[in-house]
Amino acid sequence: MATLAQPMSLTTAFDVYGATCPSRALLDLVTGRWAVLLIGALEESPQRFGALRRRLEGVSQKVLTEKLRDLEAEGLISRTVVDRPLAVYYELTPIGHGLVEPLAALRQWAQTHCDGRAAGE
Fold first, then answer.
1. Number of Cβ within a 10 Å radius of residue 103
2. For the chain, where are the alpha helices, taking DSSP H only?
3. 84 band by pLDDT with thresholds 50, 70 and 90
4. Fold of 23-118
């Protein structure tokens, strides 16, 4: 998987339509259902695992853990451990904050059009 944290050379050109382009893996990651919802849940403030699990109704502990790890590996979120009392917080990185607006628009579009889809419009 392509990593956002890697420095990009000035001559690198990515083409998301190209079969071997690493941007496809990144696009797949950020447009997955749980990633879209996770980024939305984190857009206002850092959250603990339990709060995220309650917010994202229907996500399993295993899937949530995997998605958080994937987003962290790509540099979209950060994980902070606080010793006393022991707590782990997840928050968006500056790169992750860049996804807030486009993914919010996607979530809004889905909410706006779900009735028309169900009615066959």
1. 20
2. 23-31, 33-42, 49-55, 61-73, 94-97, 100-118
3. confident
4. Arc Repressor Mutant, subunit A (1.10.10)
